[in-house]
Design a protein that fits this description.
This protein is α/β, with parallel strands linked by helices and about 375 residues long. The protein folds into two domains: about 10-30 and about 285-385, Aspartate Aminotransferase, domain 1 (Alpha-Beta Complex); about 45-280, Aspartate Aminotransferase, domain 2, CATH 3.40.640.10. Helices cover about 40% and strands about 15% of the residues. The chain is built from 14 helices and 15 strands. The chain has helices at about 10, 15-20, 40-50, 60-80, 95-105, 120-125, 150-155, 180-190, 220, 250-260, 270-280, 285-310, 335-345, 370-385, and strands spanning about 25-30, 90, 110-115, 130-135, 140, 145, 160-165, 195-200, 225-230, 245, 315, 320-325, 345, 350, 360-365. Helix 5 (about 95-105) runs parallel beside helix 6 (about 120-125), helix 5 packs across helix 10 (about 250-260) and helix 12 packs parallel to helix 14. The chain starts with 7 loop residues before the first helix and ends with a helix. The structure holds pyridoxal-5'-phosphate. Pyridoxal-5'-phosphate binds near residues 95 and 166.
């Protein structure tokens, strides 16, 4: 795994959005993908497809059944969660899964809860389908962002149908603990909500924290939870388009299918299926090495931000390779996104795309080599000093 010697010209020659979005002198640290090479077993799975010219229609019934079993075994092994292979629907990506869930479980005009700040496409899934967004702010308790269950309960009314729940949370990097999950589950059950639990970052949890799938909390919450996940984030292959929805009960899946015919969702391609299978069965050693590298990068980033940007606020993320930084104390001209793009030639994610109240925040992706991370930080430090 090329964790150390990444070459900027090589990365820039990729056609991906990460490296193409900004000017050729900008180092990108925005979209949630990593700069690293994929794990060798995934590369081998893709090479086999090419070698054998296996580009026809996949044998869907067999492929879907086999990969659903792999998913279920992986969830048991990683999180001691009994996910049912029969309750799996494959999709191309999780944005599709969140749109489909919103359309299945709420009518136009219904209210949908979303913790803010939020991954921007969740807002689109609500607003672009004519549903109404009920924002529920995470609370900064001075140590981290916490889930305010009382505020959640207060935000619910008779038109609230669904909660989109992101766990671990992007952009704050929170990993909710059992007590928080139990409280959330109780509110959802009491108010007859369907919960769409996006757990795409579940593999990227740092030492000292543990991911507990929401559907594992109790059979009652499982019965109303759609867990959406994929291997694409943690194994760095979002371009391969393979994700899944897991329904915690047959009744929930029936309700979904009554509104969204599964064939409308299409199927992932053979590359996505095969790569996901390789990731979940053969790539844990690669993931362990990745997490060691990300842990060191995270710690380095947090200490550098604290020492070099006095007043900026950063909590070490408990999961994800994303950091959520409050630059308000620096009184930068413009937003941090604009300032660092123009003056440092670093492309962060803009805070206000996650929440209008977060315009003084920037999200920084640190899934790169230490040398590139230091280049990013060095440019930002220079820009702040020169301001
Ligand atoms: C929480 C969350 N969900 C979903 C996605 C996107 O997933 P996909 O590429 O499968 O749509 C991301 C990507 O950053 C994410 O952070």
């Amino acid at each position: 795994m090329e964790l150390v010697d990444l070459s900027v010209p090589f990365l820039r020659s990729r056609r991906n959005a990460k490296w193409q979005r900004f000017g050729s002198d900008v180092i990108p640290a925005w979209v949630a993908e990593m700069d690293f090479a994929i794990a060798p077993p995934i590369a081998e799975a893709l090479a086999r497809i090419e070698r054998e010219q296996d580009f026809g229609y996949p044998s869907y019934a067999a492929t879907v059944t086999a990969l659903a079993k792999v998913f279920s075994l992986r969830m048991k092994e990683r999180f001691d969660w009994d996910a049912d292979a029969e309750r799996v629907q494959f999709v191309s990506d999780l944005v599709q899964a969140s749109f489909a869930s919103v359309m299945a479980f709420a009518d136009p005009g219904d209210n949908i809860l979303l913790q803010t700040p939020a991954y921007p496409p969740f807002r689109d899934a609500i607003l672009k389908t004519g549903r109404r967004l009920t924002p529920h702010s995470l609370r900064d308790d001075g140590q981290r962002f916490v889930f305010d269950v009382e505020a959640l309960a207060a935000a619910i009314d008779s038109q609230t149908r669904v909660m989109i729940f992101c766990h671990p949370h992007n952009p704050t990097g929170r990993v909710y603990d059992r007590a928080e999950l139990e409280a959330i589950a109780q509110v959802a059950i009491r108010n007859d909500l369907v919960v769409v639990s996006d757990e795409i970052h579940a593999d990227l949890v740092y030492p000292g924290r543990q991911h507990i799938p929401l559907a594992k909390i109790s059979p009652e919450i499982a019965a109303r939870t759609v867990t959406i996940t994929s291997a694409t984030k943690s194994f760095n292959m979002p371009g391969l388009r393979c994700g899944l929805m897991h329904f915690g009960s047959r009744a929930l899946q029936d309700r979904f299918e009554a509104r969204i015919p599964p064939l409308l969702l299409g199927h992932p391609g053979i590359n996505g299926f095969e790569a996901t299978s390789a990731a979940w069965t053969q790539c844990q050693p690669w993931l362990d090495r990745l997490m060691a590298h990300l842990t060191a990068n995270r710690d380095h980033l947090v200490s550098t931000v604290r020492s070099e940007f006095p007043g900026a606020r950063i909590y070490a993320p408990e999961a994800t390779f994303l950091s959520w930084i409050d630059f308000s104390a620096l009184k930068l001209p413009g937003t941090p996104f604009q300032f660092f793009l123009e003056k440092a030639r670093v492309g962060l994610s803009a805070g206000d795309t996650f929440d209008v109240a977060s315009r003084e925040f920037g999200r920084l992706n640190f899934a790169t080599s230490r040398a590139i991370l230091d280049e990013i930080l060095g440019r930002m430090i220079e820009a702040v000093r020169a301001r």
